[in-house]
Write a structure and sequence with these properties.
single chain; mainly beta; 18-stranded parallel β-sheet; 4 helices
């Protein structure tokens, strides 16, 4: 029997059967639309059986439409059914189940943007069935609103290729004992999307092949039984969640994987062999640790350490995570070994990273919790961004070296270096020290994330290659950078001053940039007492190391008229300089301001007057004021 529904024709019936009786052959074509775009339609209010006891074929093309409750392709033993849905707008809509091979053999072809929909889909329902479904071409879809079983009790094969897409909730390959299921997803944009779990071999035998940029996604958990395998070569397998034991059944020779691998109990990282496969991209695979993970291993996945989880290394251990998005909410304890993250690491507010050894995050550290280093030497490699809740501590008579930039939150500028310990910064550092230990800056010191007063409870050393960056945004404290140092201040390196926020220098502007309670030693490169820092908008800016208590460091604009040697005061040395070269300035300015000291250059102790003999020799005794020099001390 042959039935053709074309040109917008319509056939309506209850149940439909193609190839009903033994030895019969039925063929139905539903194709095209009428001139108004109305689809040629076969509407079955009941089921549709393609190959009941005989053999049947159904072709839907050119925008044709077939509807029914449930569909069966190859119903009885030894029958054959074939359904092809091809072309844009061509649809086969089953409101209930679709059986591709019930007792007989079924073939489903979805091509060239054709669409098939149903609730639960079955390939090879009974043990006597061997059935195949192929979804091929861009826009071609098989949409299962519920589960899809590839090989229920019989044999089922699913091919997704050339941009075809299959979707369902739970996917099963090889459902029952004795069944065999094979699913192959290949070619770019080809996808099998499981919004729920995926079973590769439930009680039967399953094989999943992902290749040539094909994609398989799982929203729930992937389970691969001992009879089954996933072959990954050039595609991507987003497995959701899977145990490491299951991942050992993934034969990965190329491509990429993504998902979470839960680790419970005391686990040696070396035992996670599936995550040490350099043939596959494991960048988006995360170890979900909720117990103790320890030892030496080069894992290509990332780490998601839960609040109950601990990662531990000893002196001989090197534990490396190669993936991105590393997170620590528990503890990472390094007792002299190496903890390395090839990309980023976020230490959350509950996270604790501690002890000694090497800590490496090539993509940088984001610290919202605690990083504590004690009991020896610790090296921290990778930029550190410390949040408002983050705490960085160095104690136990230890030395911690930060090899890259450390940026403190404006509301949390200080780390805590205890007495007897030292924090060394080889990159830039914008903070201070709540403790009384030492801070050594060998890179750049950039106080605050904007002009700020930064405190140091202990000593501060600027190395010879260091750069001290000072921003001036006004003359009011808080509008320019200031170091408040309770200990000693050792100076070397370069001073770099910049004006910000539209600020311009005025004559006699002054800035106390370092308030030093202890002793001070050294000078900035090329800047002796009264040295010219630079010219800013036509106004010169000079440095003094004698501000405040005599050890403070300050800047002052233009200095005093008559201070020809720019040392912060007007004295006999300035006259000698003028005498050698009158072009340095006006003698009248020298006469007017003789004995004056620039405010930031005023020392706590009186500066000795020029010797009387010198003054007499110069014939200037009449100019010497009877009063002592005025000495102004900038309020701290």
């Amino acid at each position: 029997g042959t039935l053709a529904i074309t040109g917008g024709g319509l056939v309506i019936n209850g149940n439909g059967r193609i190839g009903d009786d033994p030895n019969s052959t039925g063929a139905v074509t539903v194709a095209g639309t009428d001139p108004n775009g109305n689809a040629s339609t076969w509407s079955n209010s009941g089921y549709l059986n393609v190959g009941n006891i005989g053999n049947g074929t159904l072709d839907i093309s050119g925008g044709g439409l077939v509807t029914d409750t449930y569909g069966v392709i190859g119903d009885e033993l030894s029958t054959t059914g074939v359904v092809t849905v091809a072309g844009v707008g061509s649809q086969w809509n089953n409101s209930s189940y679709l059986y591709v091979g019930n007792g007989g053999d079924g073939t489903l072809n979805v091509e060239a943007s054709g669409v098939v929909s149903n609730t639960v889909g079955y390939l090879g329902l009974q043990s006597t069935s061997t059935s195949v479904a192929t979804v091929t071409g861009s826009g071609s879809q098989w949409n299962n609103s519920a589960e899809l079983h590839v090989g229920e009790s019989g044999n089922g094969t699913l091919n997704v290729e050339a941009g075809g897409v299959v979707s369902n909730t739970i996917g099963v390959i090889g459902a029952f004992s004795g069944s065999t299921g094979v699913a192959t997803v290949t070619d770019p944009n080809s996808q099998w999307n499981n919004s729920g779990d995926l079973y590769v071999g439930h009680f039967g035998q399953g094989t999943l092949n992902i290749q040539n940029d094909g994609l398989v996604t799982v929203g729930g958990t992937t389970t691969i039984n001992s009879q089954s395998v996933v072959n990954l070569s050039g595609g991507r397998f987003e497995f959701g969640s899977a145990t490491h034991d299951n991942l050992t059944r993934v034969n990965a020779t190329g491509g990429a994987m993504a998902g979470v691998v839960p680790v419970d109990g005391v686990t040696s990282a070396a035992a996670l062999t599936a995550l040490q496969n350099t043939s596959v991209d494991l960048n988006d695979v995360a170890v979900l640790n909720s117990s103790l993970l320890h030892g030496t291993a080069m894992l290509d996945s990332s780490l998601n350490n839960q609040t109950a989880g601990e990662v531990r290394t000893l002196a001989s251990d090197w534990l490396r995570f190669g993936g991105t998005g590393n997170v620590n909410a528990g503890e990472i304890n390094n007792f002299g070994g190496v903890i390395e993250f090839a990309q980023d690491m976020t230490n959350t507010s509950s996270g604790f990273i501690a002890s000694r050894g090497q800590f490496i995050a090539d993509g940088g550290w984001t610290n919202q919790g605690v990083m504590a280093f004690s009991g020896g030497f610790a090296d921290v490699l990778g930029d550190v961004a410390n949040s408002a809740t983050g705490q960085i501590s160095v104690g136990g008579a230890s030395v911690t070296t930060f090899f890259d930039d450390v940026t403190m939150d404006p509301n949390n500028l200080n780390i805590d270096v205890a007495a007897g310990s030292t924090a060394v910064f080889l990159g830039s550092y914008n903070g201070g020290n709540d403790g009384t230990g030492a801070i050594d800056v060998l890179g750049d010191l950039r106080p605050g994330n904007s002009p700020a007063e930064v405190t140091f409870g202990g000593g501060l050393t600027l190395g010879s290659a260091a750069g001290a960056f000072v921003e001036l945004g006004g003359t009011t404290p808080g509008m320019f950078d200031q170091l408040d140092i309770a200990g000693d201040f050792t100076i070397a390196g370069n001073l770099l001053v910049s004006l910000i926020d539209g600020f311009t220098l005025s004559l006699y502007d002054e800035f106390l940039i370092a308030d030093v309670d202890g002793s001070r030693s050294g000078e900035f490169n090329g800047l002796g007492e009264g040295g010219l820092v630079g010219n800013y908008g036509g106004t010169d800016l000079f440095i003094t190391y004698q501000a405040g208590n005599g050890n403070d460091v300050g800047l002052f604009a233009q200095g005093l008229p008559g201070d020809f040697d720019f040392d912060g005061d007007v004295d006999g040395n300035d006259f000698l300089l003028w005498q050698r070269d009158p072009s340095v300035g006006s003698l009248a300015d020298w006469e007017t301001n003789y004995g004056m000291v620039a405010p930031l250059a005023a020392a706590a102790a009186a500066v000795p007057e020029p010797a009387t003999g010198v003054l007499l020799l110069l014939g200037l005794a009449a100019m010497v004021r009877a009063n002592t020099k005025r000495r102004l001390v900038v309020a701290r």
